Amino acid sequence: MDIGVPKETKDQEFRVGLSPSSVRVLKESGHNIFVETQAGEGAGFTDDDYRNSGAEIVPTPEAAWNRELVVKVKEPLATEYKFLQKEQVLFTYLHLAAHRDLTEHLINSGVCAIAYETVEQPGTNKLPLLTPMSIIAGRLAVQFGARFLERQQGGRGVLLGGVPGVQPGRVVILGGGVVGTEAAKIAVGMGASVQILDVNVERLSYLETLFGSRVELLYSNSAHIEAAVREADLLIGAVLVPGRKAPILVSRELVKQMQPGSVIADVAVDQGGCIETVHPTSHTNPVYVEEGVLHYGVPNMPGAVPWTATQALNNSTLPYVVQLANQGMEALKNNPALAKGVNVQNHRLVHPAVQEVFPDLV
Hints:
- By secondary structure, this protein is α/β, with parallel strands linked by helices.
- Helices cover 34% and strands 17% of the residues.
- It is globular and about 65 Å long.
- The model has no long low-confidence stretch (mean pLDDT 96).
């Protein structure tokens, strides 16, 4: 099969769909891989690295896109819609619930769009291709939050770890899944005071075995959210409803009650965000001030650490890419987890969660 790897076009997105080592595995299986020139440069992979692994370097995006299978990291942008083709397979993160325009173009194009974030192991609720980036995003949320709490960055001037005689910063995490857990690990390691709120009592019990008394674990309801958010120096949105828009848990009125110079980092922004005042930003312009609070809303946070993130992503995606390359559309019949990743096929919106978001497109 001919496999294309375009260079990512999202602002400061330096990850790449396939690493040279992944290319080598696919080449050894008899496939042809076409990598756009400099596609991996931002992640530390040169064109020569790809050539040495068996790829052909192509000079234009079109030459990479014009293939049976296209492997990316982020969703196609408007400038890339023209490359979508009937019966082409696109394998990437899509997050369609937050992108109506993209959803419509995918439907009209006839492409088979498989989203990393909805590939789901049957009966487990595990999302194996979302997990590695969730781990990275959760850890980065605290790293970036600590940075923007610095006074020179516009924040309150709070050191999350505090010092003897001065209380540490307070980190409030909405959601105790992968993102929330990883954020808590970093925040605890920095010495912050940490609260996690979640509606899943079993998950809270698991988190107790993980963190013990180092993290305050609260059932997520409106009263607990209001009390916690008001006192937060750093508020992290870590809510996930697979395939659907994230629910709004924090209203504008509640944001107004936060301390001026506090920081919000909403990792759920790629699914619409769980905080009313958050909208997507970029690595070039990552923050803005609303109601006196700094908001960080970069939807591709792991793009900040592309060397790590590309390899972590490939470790999870490569088996699925190999299966698609070897079996074509038969892979969807043979692998139920991969079949659950299909969002658009044969000019139809087929994923149930996304259908709920856009019922008029069904």
